Amino acid sequence: MRVSKNLSKVNSLSDEKHAFSIEMKSKKHLISLAIDCDQRMEGVFIEGFLGELLDVKLVEDALLEISGTNGTFRLDINRKELTRALTKKPRRKESGRTQTEGL
Fold this sequence. Notes:
This protein is mainly beta. The chain has helices at 5-10, 79-87, and strands at residues 20-24, 30-35, 44-48, 53-59, 63-68, 71-75, 90-94, 97-100. The strands form three sheets. A four-stranded antiparallel beta sheet has the order 1-6-5-4, with no helix packed on it.
């Protein structure tokens, strides 16, 4: 398992800030990567295909790792936070998508 040194350091900094990493085997699996260069906005958008789902695991109860044939997504979140987020009730619909409190 390859985990960024920075991601593992950030994991212990705060329960409210969740570091993430996305590792893709090839840039051809990216649909979109947009970084807003407008100084008034700081948005970043990353979209792609992880491919066929190979594994989903919680590493050492502190790192959610979703692996696909095209890459791996990692998020520093512990079991308690993940369970709480998955069991929250949707609060309202916005632009055709359900918004969940706290996510």
